[in-house]
Amino acid sequence: MTNCTTGAGKGSLSAKTGIEARRIIRAGEWSGHTSGTAPNHVQGNVAILPASLAGDFLRFCQRNPKPCPLLGVSEPGDPSLPTLGADLDIRTDVPAYRIWRHGELVGEVTDIRDYWRDDLVTFVLGCSFSFEQALIDAGIPLRHVLEGRNVAMYRTNIPTVPAGVFHGPMVVSMRPMTAANAIRAVQVTARVPAVHGAPVHLGDPSLIGIADLQKPDFGDAVAVLPGELPVFWACGVTPQSVVMEARPEFCITHSPGKMLVTDLLDRDLAFS
Amino acid sequence: MTNCTTGAGKGSLSAKTGIEARRIIRAGEWSGHTSGTAPNHVQGNVAILPASLAGDFLRFCQRNPKPCPLLGVSEPGDPSLPTLGADLDIRTDVPAYRIWRHGELVGEVTDIRDYWRDDLVTFVLGCSFSFEQALIDAGIPLRHVLEGRNVAMYRTNIPTVPAGVFHGPMVVSMRPMTAANAIRAVQVTARVPAVHGAPVHLGDPSLIGIADLQKPDFGDAVAVLPGELPVFWACGVTPQSVVMEARPEFCITHSPGKMLVTDLLDRDLAFS
């Protein structure tokens, strides 16, 4: 399982707004990654679950807001998400989807109208694109972005609060930075709780069960230079890993890096 | 030179408000420390300088707001500070004062009416009492408070921005805490820029020129336990040390721990 920062392929979707991006995707003209498209528009991780599991998952998100920042939840069977986008249809508006049965990947498609059921509930979760932009806008360099790599992600010993069938450890992303930038990054990201919020840890990785920073569980390792601290944020891979561990009879997610582009603006997520 | 967290003697002044505290002090009924008096009322560091130096010092504070958070400045020769307290008279309302000539301590008195001059300008600077209360209210334990010690303070290699005759390195205070509390402490103290604001450093002390945390330049050493980070804030000792280094022909300060109690409430200092 991977989150929104992974899987970027070649080329990019050139759209100015969320509605424009979704129309191109819906018309079948784009099935690639969404990195860089519709600048300043919020993109989201997608998880679609049967209503029988939706209550548990909603409670899981409510109890674990840092790894599971919920941007929107649909009515059962309703493919629209009016708070996230005008005329949004979750069955057609994501570039590519993964179909899962009992925790096993069974297919990857660009349209899920044939898989739609009256009991499916869509969850859209905040993604680190928005908060990475906030950090960059604050003048904080992000090494993995500068080096064109995926962010480094690690399983930790930080427990999540379980809900029904959903439980498991928190996955974190790590960005190395100077102490002054780490202090500034806490302030900047604390203002965006809808995209993971303030860090969950900084400094000694062994204190959260990470044995070797150079061996991430997901993504790419980056150097931590002398005078830098590793700073750890709750990661959107957490809910995906928790859902897969629960092996739901049916589940649909976005394909890595191919996100739902919403009508929300990044600035709407920040409180001041 | 010491700041507001030092010099607490025995007993305490029992007053509910700033105006009540200042009336007791003005009446000559209290010359001790002000720790714990008038709960939730802002206390300030006091520096009184001749007008010939006041412009330089005001610019120094403006250029170095973290170590020199200015709460109020008087008109030359005017002993009132109407924005900080009703009926406040800086000549009588501080429990004890120190008189300095050319950087040398020449006396300690409880009333400066005999020393007053028409060219004196009073500066009141934020003190860490307010931000320590904000940290404690946020559930962050402070070891030096729990152990009844003075906070540990260190000269650093972080330069201040000079102004006229005033220049010198930043002095910081250090509080050890877990990473989770350090992250929370950044958020809590960023909201109170009028009392030093967010930390200036955390983690490796050698990066800011501190050789040994167990040998503070001022105050008392406290243990940094396994799993804790040292977190460093700009300290109100900085302007005092900078003023003394400049050896002004005349200067009056509060005596350590014997602060000006204002009518401002701690909560007035926080933005939300």
Your description of this structure?
Two copies of one chain form a homodimer. The N terminus of chain A is likely disordered. Chain A is an alpha+beta fold. The relative contact order of chain A is 0.26. Chain A is globular and about 55 Å long. Chain A is built from seven helices and eleven strands. In chain A, the strands form two sheets. In chain A, strands 1, 2, 3, 4, 5, 10 and 11 form a seven-stranded antiparallel sheet that branches. Chain A folds into two domains: 138 residues, PSTPO5379-like (3-Layer(aba) Sandwich); 110 residues, PSTPO5379-like fold. Chain A starts with 17 loop residues before the first helix and ends with a helix. Chains A and B meet through helix 5 and strand 8 of A and helix 5 and strand 8 of B.
Features:
homodimer; 272 residues; alpha+beta; PSTPO5379-like; 2 domains; 7-stranded antiparallel β-sheet; 4-stranded antiparallel β-sheet; disordered N terminus
Secondary structure elements and pairings:
Two copies of one chain form a homodimer.
Chain A: H1 18-26, E1 41-50, H2 51-63, E2 70-73, E3 97-101, E4 104-109, E5 120-126, H3 128-137, H4 143-146, E6 152-159, E7 169-178, H5 179-190, E8 201-202, E9 228-234, H6 237-245, E10 251-254, E11 260-265, H7 266-269
Antiparallel strand pairs in A: 1-5, 1-10, 1-11, 2-5, 3-4, 3-10, 6-7, 7-9, 8-9
